[in-house]
From TrEMBL:
Function: May play the central regulatory role in sporulation. It may be an element of the effector pathway responsible for the activation of sporulation genes in response to nutritional stress. Spo0A may act in concert with spo0H (a sigma factor) to control the expression of some genes that are critical to the sporulation process.
Ranges of residues in domain CheW-like: 12-149
Pfam families: CheW, Response_reg
InterPro entries: Chemotax_regulator_CheV, CheW-like_dom_sf, CheW-lke_dom, CheY-like_superfamily, Sig_transdc_resp-reg_receiver
Assigned keywords, A-Z: Phosphoprotein
Keyword presence, Phosphoprotein: yes
Family annotation (PANTHER family): CHEMOTAXIS PROTEIN CHEV
GO biological process: chemotaxis; phosphorelay signal transduction system
Residue ranges of every copy of the Response regulatory domain listed in the record: 170-297
Record-listed 4-aspartylphosphate modification sites: D230
This protein's name: Stage 0 sporulation protein A homolog
Length: 298
């Protein structure tokens, strides 16, 4: 998919809206490289239920995930009329099977309503109400981790060396994915960090930082050393949050790391435009810890 012409940090994104079993779902257009017809899927012995198999596309063999099986517990019986969303994120190429693509539309991050976790497997970012129907935004990182494919799954086994000098560094973490958030928290604590405040979206993190600024003024930095933020979050995205911080005369000294599956060589300029101090692609948590050490001079 070609890059969308949106101003970075204005709180907008474009999504591909697609259908599965009569329900509307959505994915950030930046995650999708191509929409392709699927003619054949090669079965894989003892694979997870949601993994339909493998497909050969553009000279590469990609894992195929059946979203109908995952979301509706209803395996797809044939592939002749299915479409595949060819995605590449977290260093892994994956095809997600859908019934058909409805449209591409522009929305605001604030239009995405976060939802409380209602099951052990939380696979959604939030919901959008528009055009008279509800569209569910899926958490594709959590889906990949749950299916135990690619670097997202491997990241759970990443080991980091403990450094007791890190215990006083005060970190604010803005991350809406429960799976990624738990992985981050465990790894950061293993590395020696003890002062971590976690927020489920950019707006909650912004409100907290704004409160620190109002209460402590120029001395706010004594209460917070670093912000680690996802990019894709309901209500307020990471680009907009970073832009707000770096445009504020008081807050601009705060170090910001963007940690997202959208961090690629093609898209890094977006984080640079809003002033991020560093950008790291999920789920390179070990690299993230090393970068925190560098920024904090440890």
């Amino acid at each position: 998919m070609s890059e969308i012409l949106l101003k970075v940090g204005n709180g907008e994104l474009e999504i591909i809206e697609f259908m599965i079993n009569g329900q509307f779902y959505g994915i950030n257009v930046l995650k999708v490289r191509e929409i392709i017809p699927i003619n054949e899927v090669i079965k894989v012995p003892k694979a997870s239920e949601e993994i339909a198999g493998l497909a050969h596309v553009r000279g590469k063999v990609s894992v195929v995930i059946d979203l109908q099986q995952l979301l509706c517990s209803k395996p797809r019986e044939q592939y002749q009329h299915a479409l595949g969303l060819l995605c590449e994120f977290n260093g892994t190429q994956v095809i997600f099977l859908v019934d058909y693509v409805e449209q591409i539309k522009r929305i605001s991050w604030k239009d995405i309503n976060p939802i409380e976790q209602i099951s052990e497997k939380n696979l959604t970012i939030g919901t959008i109400l528009s055009d008279g129907h509800v569209t569910v935004m899926l958490d594709f990182e959590s889906i990949a981790i749950g299916a135990k494919i690619g670097k997202g799954y491997e990241a759970q086994g990443q080991k980091v060396q403990k450094n007791h000098r890190l215990k006083n560094i005060k970190i604010v973490l803005a991350e809406d994915s429960k799976a990624i958030c738990e992985m981050l928290r465990c790894t950061l604590e293993e590395a020696g960090f003890r002062n971590i405040k976690i927020f489920n979206n950019g707006q909650e993190a912004k409100d907290y930082i704004y409160e620190l600024k109002n209460q402590y003024g120029q001395e706010f930095y004594k209460k917070i050393d670093l912000l680690i933020s996802d990019i894709e979050m309901p209500v307020l995205d990471g680009y907009s949050l970073t832009k707000w911080i770096k445009s504020d005369e008081t807050l601009q000294r705060l170090k910001v790391i963007l940690f997202s599956s959208l961090i690629t060589e093609e898209l890094k300029h977006k984080g640079m435009e809003v002033g991020a101090d560093s950008q790291i692609s999920k789920p390179s948590i070990k690299v993230l810890v090393e970068e925190i050490n560098r920024l904090m001079g440890r």
